[in-house]
Amino acid sequence: MGDTRLEFAEAIARQAGQLAVDLRQHPDGLEIDTKGPQDFVTAADLAVETLIREAIAARFPEDAVLGEEGGLSGDAAACWIIDPIDGTANYMRGIPDWAVSIGYFDGMELTHGVIFAPDLGALASARNGQPARLNGAQISVSDRSDLGHSLVVLGYSQRVGLSDHLDRIGRLLESGCEYRRQGAATIGLMSVAIGRVEAYYEPSLNAWDAAAGLVIVRAAGGSVSAPAFPDFLQTPGEVMAANRNMDRLATLCRN
Ligand code: IPD
Ligand code: CA
Ligand code: CA
Rounded to the nearest whole angstrom, what is the distance from the C-alpha of residue 176 to the centroid of ligand 2? Predict the structure, then answer.
């Protein structure tokens, strides 16, 4: 039987992604404001978040919403967690690794997640207790445990020192793993859930970057580690998602 919130989130993510695609054709869609070094916001980020917020307000007016651009609204324990465009720097330049991310925290735990990457033609979604799906087909994490064939996607946050990041890369390469940086946490987490890579690690990530992906990786049979909710709604923290080789890969990723 279908799940109302999951079907809603999938439909809204598709609409939101299409709006972002449309706005990229329009000069105003790429109007840039800079929140910090390499941290951009476009008119599309704002317009897409507004679309998602209005849809949630119309359908689930009792729920709170946390969005990257608009912050937290509402005081309910149940909260939608949205990143209108994750990977804005990629989106702006026409690199296909960006996505709309919609997660749902029911007041007790993260229960729903949808990631829609229009340029990749990929919609990944999951609800707790059900298999994760990519474009409708069931997905699962990889079963590789050989480090010499393992890929780890890393995120980098300026909130954490560069030397930690470089040390991490060094440890991974010395162990035989390879690493990638896609510039969008959602795409890294989705890649773990599909089994294209073995792990995603970022030392300081916000809830809107991670919420949907954490649900999807867990439903795909992976292991996840993130700050506890509801604190994570307010404060960024370390996020790791992996296949069954989580412990070994986490040892390599953590400083
Ligand atoms: C960023 C991306 C990036 C990650 C950063 C995020 P944004 O999100 O996910 O890969 O390393 O921590 O802030 O700003 O493109 O939505
Ligand atoms: Ca983001
Ligand atoms: Ca964003």
Answer: 29
| Fold annotation for 147-253 | D-Maltodextrin-Binding Protein; domain 2 (3.40.190)
**156 pocket-lining for ligand 1 (C-beta < 6 Å):** yes
Residue intervals of the chain classified under CATH 3.40.190.80 are: 147-253
CB 244 within 8 A of CB 143: yes
Quickly name the fold that domain 4-138 has. Answer: Fructose-1,6-Bisphosphatase; Chain A, domain 1 (3.30.540)
pLDDT of residue 19: 97
Atom of ligand 1 nearest to the CA of 182: 10
Report the residue count for the chain: 255
Sequence ranges of the chain with CATH classification 3.30.540.10: 4-138
Q: Tell me, in angstroms, the distance from the centre of ligand 1 to residue 219's CA.
A: 23
Query: Is any ligand 1 atom within 6 A of the Cβ of residue 82?
Result: no
Tell me the per-residue pLDDT of 38-86, one tens digit each, with 9 for 90 and over.
778 899 999 999 999 999 999 999 999 999 999 999 999 999 999 999 9
pLDDT at residue 118 greater than cutoff 80: yes
Please indicate whether residue 188, judged by its CB atom, sits closer than 6 Å to ligand 1.
Answer: no
pLDDT at 1: 52
Question: Cα(54) to centroid of ligand 2, in Å?
Answer: 20
- pLDDT confidence of residue 253: 97
